[in-house]
């Protein structure tokens, strides 16, 4: 755990250093046409990801299947694949609907404001949150994209705070408002909620 924590701190410092570089947030004079193109390009990942998770859930429902074993089961080899696949699996349509708008809005924000590093940020959020969840989560199957929601929201909020960039902070607050349980989801007060993943995803951006 010590080596993992050290690795996490190093990676966080590297990312936070990159946040201070001009390539992250475009600070050139506003250009309507350029911003429109950029906004549309930033939709590619959110649309693709949301389409994929809805396709998977529809297949589960249509074929009467259950892909929960593609989730994370802490400290067991059967749960290792879930480090990659767990965000794609949801327990029911209510669970899926709850994650759809937040993951769409937040991932759009990452690809819009941090386009050169967007995929690196997504992969960092995915692997760091889910590896820590596999190491420290309770003995149960953990599924859903909410871990990414918390990681993305925390990233946008704290990076906006560090850079004093109000648009990033605003996006996080709007999503937190729409995603009513965002705050309470990091505490063990809600039944059948992977609060460990939510808490780890939030905490990793508060440590430098």
From TrEMBL:
- Tell me where in or outside the cell this protein is found: Membrane
Q: Name one GO cellular component term.
A: membrane
Q: How does it sit in the membrane?
A: Multi-pass membrane protein
Q: Give the transmembrane ranges.
A: 43-63, 96-114, 121-137, 143-161, 168-187
Quote the SUPFAM superfamilies the UniProt record gives: Rhomboid-like
Which residue ranges does the record assign to the Peptidase S54 rhomboid domain?
A: 81-198
Q: Name one GO molecular function term.
A: serine-type endopeptidase activity
Q: Classify the main location.
A: membrane
Q: Name one GO biological process term.
A: proteolysis
> Which InterPro entries has this protein been placed in?
Peptidase_S54_rhomboid_dom (IPR022764), Rhomboid-like_sf (IPR035952)
Pfam annotation, one family: Rhomboid
Q: Which UniProt keywords apply?
A: Hydrolase, Membrane, Protease, Transmembrane, Transmembrane helix
Q: State what protein this is by name.
A: Rhomboid family intramembrane serine protease
Protein species of origin: Ancylomarina euxinus
